[in-house]
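Progress against Task 2.4 (sequence-to-structure conversion) is shown through the following example record, which the project officer requested during the mid-term review.
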Amino acid sequence: MREEVLVVRRAQLFPAGAFHGFSSEGVERYLATIAAHAVFAPRDRVEHDPSLKQIIPYVVLRHQQSIFLVRRTRAGSEERLREKFSIGIGGHINPADVGDAIDPVEAGMRRELTEEVDVPPGWQARAVGVLNDDKEAVGSVHFGLVYVVDLPSTDVRVRETAKLYGAFATPEELREVYPRLETWSQFVVNAIGPAPQV
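C-alpha cells generated for the chain above:
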C-alpha cells in the first residue's frame, strides 16, 4: 500500500515568495493555509517535486535549560538524514493521523511525538515558528512547523530505538555537535538558541 502524506502547493504557502531558514512570523497564517489547502498525495510521487511542500511537525523537547538531542540511525526511512543529529522530533502526516481533526498539523504532531518517544504527562506543545530550506534536496520538498514542548522532567524514552537514540543535552553539548546537526536543527539553534526562550 502506497504511503500518502500531507502536502500543500508551494504557491499557496508562499504567495509572496519563500523565506529561507527559521521564521517566527506568520505561524497562524501558515497553519490556516495548511488547514484550508492541504491534500494527501502519494509520498513516492512528491518526494522529488518542489512544487509541493510536504508538511512536517518538528517538535523540540525541553526540560529547563536542556534540549532532547536525537541521532537518526541507518534504519531511518529518510536516507538523506541518516546518521545526523537533531533537536526535532517529527515526520510526515498521514491520513490516519488526522481523521476529522480541525488542525491537521497538531494532530500529526501529537501522533508523531507519542509514536517516537514516551514523555512524562502534563506536556503542552506550542507552535513557535516555521522552517524552510530550498537550498538542499530534502528541504526543497518539506516545510516544518516548529513546536516547543516543555517537560516537567527528563523522563523521556525513545520508542523507535531502531531508528533513533537520544538524551538530553546542555547548551554546551549542543554547541559541540552543532556541525553534525541536520540543517533544520541548525536553523532552530541559530534563531532561538540551544535553550529556547519562547
